[in-house]
Amino acid sequence: MPVTKSATKKLRRDKRRTAHNDDVRALLRDTMRRVRKGTITTPEAYAVVDKTAKINLIHPNKAARLKSKIATVLPNPAKKKASVKSSASGK
């Protein structure tokens, strides 16, 4: 148990931060599950990964790895539009 007044305040603050971090970690896990199922768009998944890296919950290199994995699993809507335009102009 904390002895000083500042240690007591720090314990309260740490509990709040831990609860918030647990929520964000759960959101990241849920997002990666949705990526594997294909029920999420690429920008939505990128936003969650970037948010977790921004608050230093995961390392920036891990964020880059996850975003690379998302890009390989999910179709990119920008590439679909480009391929449709190129096939239409070729006719």
Structure description:
The chain is mainly alpha-helical and 91 residues long. The protein has one domain. Helix content is 80%, strand content 0%. The chain has 4 helices and no strands. Helix 1 runs antiparallel to helix 2 (42-54) and helix 2 (42-54) runs antiparallel to helix 3 (60-73). The longest helix is centred in the first third of the chain and has 33 residues, at 5-37. The radius of gyration is 20 Å and the shape is elongated. 12% of the residues are buried. The mean pLDDT is 89.
Task: Give a brief rundown of this model.
The protein has 91 residues and is mainly alpha-helical. The protein has four helices and no strands.
What's the tally of helices? 4
Mean pLDDT: 89
Residue runs with pLDDT of under 50 for 5 or more positions: none
Q: What distance separates the N and C termini? A: 75 Å
Order of helices and strands: HHHH
Total count of strands: 0
Described by strand count, sense and barrel closure, the largest sheet is:
none
**Overall body shape:** elongated
Structural class: mainly alpha
Q: Into which percentage range does the β-strand content fall?
A: under 5%
Helix content: over 70%
Radius of gyration from CA coordinates: 20 Å
List the domain count as a whole number: 1
